[in-house]
Amino acid sequence: ALAREVAAEVDGRDLVGVSVGGGSDGNFTAAIGVPTLDGLGAVGGGAHGENEHVIADTIPFRTALVAGIAARVVAG
Length: 76
Fold this sequence. Notes:
- The longest helix has 17 residues.
- The chain has a two-stranded antiparallel sheet.
- It is mainly α.
């Protein structure tokens, strides 16, 4: 809920839950039903390869989202 609230405040986005594979430790918590926020890194493609890239236009939103979440957690 917190990430959704912050995303809406940043630019009106509605974050939606999805289930994906991958190597995140978040898979362990999600598997036992704990709400898990993952995927806050850069948006891009070609992970760990010659063509790995970041879509620069997505950086401001991701930065504001992470900063907003962190600020709320610290503030309690």
